[in-house]
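Q: Give me the 3D complex with flavin-adenine dinucleotide.
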Amino acid sequence: FNHRPTFSNLVLLVGAASSGGLVAYADSKSDDVADKPQGPRKKKVVVLGTGWGGTTFLRNLDSRLYDVQVVSPRNYFAFTPLLPSVTCGTVEPRSVVEPIRRILEKKGGDIKFWEAECFKIDSANKKIHCRSNIGTNLDGDGEFLVDYDYLVVAVGARSNTFNTPGVVENCHFLKEVEDAQKIRRSVMDCFERASLPYLNEEERKNSLHFVVVGGGPTGVEFAAELHDFVTEDLSKLYPSIQHLVKISLVEAADHILTMFDKRITKFAEEKFVRDGINVKTGYKVVKVSKDAITMQNPATGDVAVPYGMAVWSTGIGTRPFVVEFMKQIGQGNRRVLATDEWLRVLECDGVYAVGDCATINQRRVMEDISEIFRVADKDNSGTLTVKEIQDVLDDIYVRYPQVELYLKSRQMNGIADLVRTSKGDAEKESIELNIEEFKKALSLVDSQVKNLPATAQVAAQQGQYLARCFNKMKDAEENPEGPIRIRGEGRHRFRPFRYRHLGQFAPLGGEQTAAQLPGDWISIGHSSQWLWYSVYATKQISWRTRALVISDWSRRFVFGRDSSCI
Ligand code: FAD
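A: Here is the predicted complex, encoded as structure tokens.
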């Protein structure tokens, strides 16, 4: 065992009889404080992940109250919304990351960080199994155990290939900072390859065909960035081949940006067509080989298209060790970890989950909605008047903004519209609706309401909410009937988590952005681009990254983007 200073508090438990080997134990009590008088033992909080959920939790947690340890394979926080800008050199990689130790140092508390990945959660014994790939223990496998009283799982998600053959081997993903760096190098390699003297015109063309698979916000933003990079910078440096460049955006659905308002979708599609980006909607990629991407369309059948570089951005999937954990706790049939509205993993004591790896269980949502109905139906008649239903609906909207978002996105704002989805003949006025019918309509809506979107916004709000609960946990335990106890028997002490949607952006290139803000406020164009700059500068995690990002943007305006292959 290499007794490195950073791991000086690793206590070796020799003779772990079951394995017959040596198990390293990450104990948060370091040697130098062992002799000092100890107060009552603080509860151990272990945080998995240093992304949006984990970092926001840590920043808001009162770390004096707990013995906190953080485990993550990356020792920095990455500002993911700017990753598409990193792919083309608009922003440098170091400008979008902040070392986690710097963030923890600012907390002033004694928080431990282990650069390692968790590969198993043993919730029965409240331990996690971790593996470091930079340091080794006596066994040489870098494995160690960490025990916890509370575990916060914030490990995000991985890219989802939907088992499409050849994707892992031949496509780039855009999930991590390293991915963005690889894409940047690969774009430049395609241009340099296409400039080589021994290639024919067809080969040059193929090398300069960039395919983006997935018409969601990430795919669209990358396609727009790449188009700007080519037209504003590379066309001047590679004048003889610039006419051969082709960017294709492939989407299986009928439109791109389907999670945005229809006006934004339409504007984006029309702008891309004007810009010469080849938007191929209704095409599903079924295979990727070294030289060609095969797409399927009901009208054309299979089409194989040669390409130079492909970026796969079709969605996210669950990390394998989380899948194993879900099987262990009886959630094997789910897609992501299910929590209740207090972000506690269902049927699992002391484990919480936030961000992309978790979802709030919809069954509980329906239970809550039923409760709202029960309360509204004061005379127990089983029917509600239109006015009462409007009140119920208002209450549901406040508690579940995603229901309102869903209805609005389908232009179903009023009661009559909603009921028509289940009854077909409801009149707008003077109807007294059967409560069961209305519930049916709502459950129909509910089953279609997607889980909270997998966004930084959701992860950060969940991290902040959970930290606030943790900060009040001791108080609440000591005063269980106090003012924060808002519900009756059997309910948790805190208000449930409520997501507040603050709007979303879709940068479309050429200094134009589409913004969809709360209250159905849509803005598209140059002014929204400046709003985008201001919001993302403000949202930076530190003054250092804020200064770096703003200076990168200014550098790009003055000198253009850097096209070196480093
Ligand atoms: P992450 O931020 O992904 O963090 C996961 C953390 O867990 C990482 O630190 C990782 O290293 C760590 N980890 C992984 N495996 C393990 C393990 N085994 N053990 C311990 N730790 C582990 N959202 C927006 O709201 N707006 C945007 O504009 C936006 N743009 C985006 C652009 C791109 C290119 C991408 C990829 C995402 C974008 N998102 C955006 C989505 C947003 O980044 C995610 O929803 C958000 O990162 C989720 O936060 P998280 O904490 O759940 O996971």
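A quick observation: The pocket of flavin-adenine dinucleotide is lined by residues 48-54, 71-74, 80-81, 83-84, 117-118, 154-156, 174-175, 218, 319, 321, 355-357, 454-457, 459 (CB under 6 Å).
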